[in-house]
Amino acid sequence: MDYDKDVKTKENIVHALYEVISGTPEQQRDWARFRNLFLPESRLIPTGKNKQNEFTIRAISPEDYIQMFTNNIKSGFFEKELHQETEEYGTIAHVFSTYETRESINGPVSNRGINSIQLYNDGNRYYVVNILWCAESMGFSLPSKYLN
């Protein structure tokens, strides 16, 4: 499959990122498409809490994310962008992307949060360099300015 369209614009790469991980439990994710969005040194960085209830981060590779997703997501998973704010300079862009997740496409919202997505443009295409995210389940409510 040709994934060139996914990486031509900032908007396309963010759309592809959400689309490729969303689907029913029976749907196979297109992990080759997912891999195409990233550089080998890219990282996905979820925030969390440790056993002492202290905030933590964990940096994983795209391959680690695929394994984590495949092993842990047994229900449907649909992630949708609600709002986006983007800044760009030269070869870099930062996308602050508010999201919501559901277990079925029309089911209740199971979580919301913000993905802080760093993009790199090499002159030919965009790459996801890092995604750092924090969910409302961490104890933070989304400010209204990131929902409009």
Structure description:
The protein has 148 residues and is of the alpha+beta class. The chain contains 3 helices and 6 strands, in the order ααββαββββ. It has a 6-stranded mixed sheet. Strand 3 and strand 4 form a beta hairpin. The longest helix has 12 residues. The termini are far apart.
Quick summary of this structure?
The protein is an alpha+beta fold and 148 residues long. It has helices spanning 10-21, 31-36, 62-72; strands at 38-49, 55-57, 78-89, 92-102, 109-121, 126-135.
Question: In terms of topology, how is this protein built?
Answer:
Blueprint (H helix, E strand, L loop, with lengths): L9 H12 L9 H6 L1 E12 L5 E3 L4 H11 L5 E12 L2 E11 L6 E13 L4 E10 L13
Q: How confident overall, as mean pLDDT?
A: 96
- From the 3D coordinates, which CATH architecture would you assign? Roll
Q: pLDDT under 50 segments (min length 5)?
A: none
What characterizes the major β-sheet?
6 strands, mixed
For the record, the CATH class is Alpha Beta
Backbone shape? globular
Number of strands: 6
In which range does the helix fraction lie?
A: 10-25%
Q: Any idea of the CATH topology?
A: Nuclear Transport Factor 2, Chain: A
| Structural class by helix and strand composition | alpha+beta
Q: Give the CA-CA distance, first to last residue.
A: 35 Å
Strand content: 35-45%
Radius of gyration: 15 Å
Overall number of structural domains: 1
Succession of helices and strands: HHEEHEEEE
Largest sheet strand order: 2-1-6-5-4-3
